[in-house]
Amino acid sequence: MSIAVVTAAIGPTYHRFLDPWSQAIQRLDRTPDEIIIVTDDVEEAEMWVHWQPGLRLIEATTKYVNHPQVCVNDAIAATTTDWVCKMDVDDELYRHALDPLAEVDADVYMFGIRLNEVNLPARHVTRGEVLRTPHNLVFSGSPFRRWVWEHSPYQDMICEDWRFWVDAARNGARFLASPTIDYRYVIHGSNISLNTDQPRWENEVRRYQDQLRRV
């Protein structure tokens, strides 16, 4: 069982997070087999990372209109592992986070997160709940089997995480909730999720749900 941890660092605001992000990866009890960082400026990014075995920086090739983080598709495409953990560059994995994956008999392992001083555990969800609910029931950094992404990569839209989990459920993925808190969601004022155009987000969600009903 092999694991990759991937991220996208697009723009100067996110380059600076590569230092704490890569240090957190170094502290993991279960060392990832591959660590892929996609960026718009490899020369700048390599000044921030803590180099370790398996780590590679690659240049972004994905063209985006709505959401630069969709470039993470380039990083995932460069992996060869059974599992992928897309950990946003401004978030911090806890050292135990990847330990259970060798025993997980599911396709998505739903992480619990720490937000400010509050722990938000993952809760059990069914595929039907993920498909029906217009809100994220699965936290962004949750690991998934590579086939989940191969069937439906991330889309260039502002609700891309929600869409990714909905597509996973639509394609038959099984979800399992972690019993622990597995990463810290770092608040820094420039978080995409905190600066989202909410009416536009809701419109995109409704549009895709309507599309699914017609299939």
Word description of this protein:
With 215 residues, this protein is an alpha/beta fold. The protein is built from 8 helices and 9 strands. It has one domain (3-214): Spore Coat Polysaccharide Biosynthesis Protein SpsA, Chain A (Alpha-Beta Complex). It is 29% helix and 23% strand. The longest helix is centred in the C-terminal third of the chain and has 17 residues, at 198-214.
Draw up the topology in text.
Blueprint (H helix, E strand, L loop, with lengths): L2 E7 L2 H4 L2 H9 L7 E6 L2 H4 L9 E5 L12 H6 L5 E4 L4 E3 L14 E8 L2 E3 L6 H6 L11 E2 H6 L8 H11 L4 E11 L12 H17 L1
Parallel strand pairs: 1-2, 1-4, 2-3, 6-9
Antiparallel strand pairs: 4-8, 5-9, 6-7
What is shown here, in short?
This protein has 215 residues and is of the alpha/beta class. 29% of the residues lie in helices and 23% in strands.
